[in-house]
Amino acid sequence: MQGLAVTDLSASYRKNNVLEDVSFELPQGSLTGIVGPNGAGKSTLLKTMLELHPKLSGTVTFAGAPLSKMRRKIGYVPQRGSVDWDFPTDALDVVLMGLYGAVGWLKRPKAGHRQQALQALAQMGMADYADRQISQLSGGQQQRVFLARALVQDAELYFMDEPLAGVDAATEQAIMTTLRELKGRGKSVMVVHHDLQTVEDYFDHVLLLNRRVMNYGETAEIFTKDNVYRTYGAGLRWRKEVPS
Amino acid sequence: MTLLLSPNAWWVLLSMLILGVASGMIGTLAYWKRQSLMSDALSHAALPGVVIAFAITGVKALPILILGAALSALIGAFLVQWVVSSSRIKEDTAMGIVLSVFFGLGIMLLTIVNRTGGGNVSGLDGFIFGQAASMVRSDVYTMGILGLLVIAVVYAAFKEWKLYLFDPQFAKGIGLPSGLMNSLYTGVLVLVIVIGIQAVGVILMSALLIIPAVSARYWTHSFKWMLIGSAFIGGGAGVAGTLISTMGKGWPTGPFIVVSSSAVFLVSLLFGARKGLVVTAIQQRMQKRSPRALPAEAEKSMVKEGGLQ
Amino acid sequence: MSYTAWILLTAALVGLSCGMIGVLLILRRMAMMADAISHTVLLGIVVAFLVTRELSGYHMLIGAVIAGLLTSVLIQWLQSRGVQGEASIGVVFTTLFAVGVILIATQVGNAHLDVKHALMGEITFVPWTTVRLPWIGDIPEATLILSAVLLIVVVAIIAFYKEWKITSFDPALAASLGIPVIVMHYAFMSLLSITTVAAFDAVGAIMVVAMLITPAAAAYLWTDRLSVMFGLSGGFGVGSAVAGYYIASWLDTSISGSMAFATGVVFLLSFLMSPKHGLISRYVTVPARKKATSER
């Protein structure tokens, strides 16, 4: 199956070019980290591919079709900070939201949908928290709920915006286990990632981004000291010296 | 133009000029504190204070009404802060509650006072839309002195304000007392609101704080010039609106001042040197870069830019 | 029905429809948009009157929806051009409202439409303007319009319940699922505009803000379930409206002002005493809260 193909994608934010001629092709069944300094356009890349942010030019296709026609096949995990966790709802309900596209207009989620949502929560180790108000969850638990919501979409391609930011070690492991399992089932996952120390352990592909694609390919080949320096510019200390 | 013939007229115009300048300056502070609508909440919140002050003293002396208005607006400011800091209610909701509930209370009290107080209270209605023409000489003095005080506070601590608004953390770090600056900011904001409400009215007072600052933003990158420009626009709008409102019998002052400053805003929006529509269009024509993508896609950016939150 | 009964029914309809819309309003962080729209609706009403020279409810509804959407589009447009969110709301609504007031003062003269009425509403006049309906008989026009608006609001909320929920909670995810976030936004603005104008006659431009925001904010302190929040907010709205009427007749003062005041009392009680998110609960259930926060 043909995967994600991005050709010459450009986008601007308030008149500044944040993405310039981004092109890459993602093989199916891969786990890709998007790595780059602050302001490199990592989140914008995800949003532009999903057409949540206007593009200036370029094309994005998945399985040969424009991405906008393939929404059902794509799961998106926004940054945890992008929503108001005081919203009056519980964890199960948030997971159910992932199914709203599939449920369709004017229809309510059925018992079957609830079952799916519960399963996804259980998979993230959150079964006991199904009816917990979302503001009472810890940061890591909230992130697990978001992951469960993506799982329940049963997509072929996942875009995740910093799912590992600010979570506890147990949650990080739980999320990585899930991501690897998704990859094992032939899904593709693109993850915006900040922690340079874990890149080699976590991802088989890396996209080094700083407004344009600095390097893209298999982690073992691409994730070298020189390439990372070139992406981040001066001022970066390599590997273990980087304060976490 | 009956106003120009009356001996009071020039004094009224002068005090409107001072009011406009003061509110233009404070509006710039509020703009950078990202609290433009707080001024709207506080001006509405002043209404019950005006009525209560009148009901207690029985005289329509401006200093007393201003004191009542200031107390009531400060209570409103405190309530917004208290509700936001100790519950899940967000700031915009808290401002809306204070604004509408205080105004409702003010209308309740005003109706009672109007019914029981006889003819001598009719001027209180003027606090809703403003009646600059009804100001007497002593009102003008009160307004002028307090307005000059506000201007002096902004002028004297110019660089401290700049630091406080731009980077409050850093300001704290180098020893600027942030608690004092906060109180001072609330103080001058409330002061300029309460001296303005007799002339502009509680409903539209916030426009005199918001519109000049936003207009000035179109002309400059510099905080100092924005402050000066905003003061200039505010003063001009105050004078122009007052003059226009004297041309018809019973025309309220507030709306004409607002429309005068809106006219300046429109000109700024079109021709402003910084991001004005005409300037931007010329720049874009010269750069000629991907004009195709803009119009249809502009709407989509709403999702991202937080317009829908 | 008696005169008082019509007034109470009208007040209750205002409380219910504003209370329901208010829930979405505060969850979408648009409380101040309601303030803006309630003011600019005045311009829509005045222009509709100047064009048709009639004080008919339907013309005014149309004028109000156009004014409401115009407000929302203008604010959005200024924001997209880099004006701060709050400041662009302030510029747009004060300007349009000032134009409305000037038009009333200079063009309309004494023709039934005065500024004070528009600002404060006059619910005591509502029973005097009636229309005759088959089967039911004479019914006040404002009450009829409010009933129709309430029906539209309730149907729209129930039919698109999950779409409202997801576009309010996580618009980015909603858009990625293909739900038209922008269409939902303008649909909501239209609902808000018709609710505002229908309530206008009864409570006026500024007190309608109290009816929209305050009961919903109070309900937000009592529950963590969206459906319960809708019910509570509607209930608080009706309760405040009815209580406001009785406070006003007791003190012989403005009914709309008293209704706004009553919503404030309901909110204050909720803020202090709600077992879930009230002030007192913070001190009573400190250990449980500590546990929840320490997990973060």
TrEMBL record, chain A:
This is Manganese transport system ATP-binding protein MntB. Keywords: ATP-binding, Nucleotide-binding, Transport. The gene is mntB. GO terms for molecular function: ATP binding; ATP hydrolysis activity. Gene3D superfamilies: P-loop containing nucleotide triphosphate hydrolases. The lineage of its organism: Bacteria, Bacillati, Bacillota, Bacilli, Bacillales. Residues 4-236 form the ABC transporter domain. It comes from Paenibacillus albidus. Belongs to the ABC transporter superfamily. Pfam families: ABC_tran (PF00005). InterPro entries: AAA+_ATPase (IPR003593), ABC_transporter-like_ATP-bd (IPR003439), ABC_transporter-like_CS (IPR017871), Metal_Ion_Import_ABC (IPR050153), P-loop_NTPase (IPR027417). PANTHER family: IRON TRANSPORT SYSTEM ATP-BINDING PROTEIN HI_0361-RELATED, METAL TRANSPORT SYSTEM ATP-BINDING PROTEIN TM_0124-RELATED.
UniProtKB/TrEMBL annotation, chain B:
This is Metal ABC transporter permease. It holds the Pfam family ABC-3. Its main location: membrane. It comes from the Bacteria. The keyword Nuclease does not apply. Residues 290-309 are annotated as: Disordered. It comes from Paenibacillus albidus. GO terms for biological process: response to zinc ion; transmembrane transport. The chain crosses the membrane at residues 12-32, 52-82, 94-113, 140-158, 184-211, 223-244, 256-282. GO terms for cellular component: ATP-binding cassette (ABC) transporter complex. PANTHER family: ABC-TRANSPORTER METAL-BINDING PROTEIN, METAL TRANSPORT SYSTEM MEMBRANE PROTEIN CT_069-RELATED. Keywords: Cell membrane, Membrane, Transmembrane, Transmembrane helix, Transport. Belongs to the ABC-3 integral membrane protein family. It is a multi-pass membrane protein. InterPro entries: ABC_BtuC-like, ABC_TroCD. Gene3D superfamilies: ABC transporter involved in vitamin B12 uptake, BtuC. It is found in: Cell membrane.
Automatic annotation (TrEMBL), chain C:
Keywords: Cell membrane, Membrane, Transmembrane, Transmembrane helix, Transport. InterPro entries: ABC_BtuC-like, ABC_TroCD. GO terms for biological process: response to zinc ion; transmembrane transport. The chain crosses the membrane at residues 6-27, 34-52, 58-78, 90-109, 142-161, 173-196, 202-222, 229-248, 254-273. GO terms for cellular component: ATP-binding cassette (ABC) transporter complex. It holds the Pfam family ABC-3. It is found in: Cell membrane. The keyword Coiled coil does not apply. Its main location: membrane. It is a multi-pass membrane protein. The keyword Signal does not apply. Belongs to the ABC-3 integral membrane protein family. This is Manganese transport system membrane protein MntD. It comes from Paenibacillus albidus.
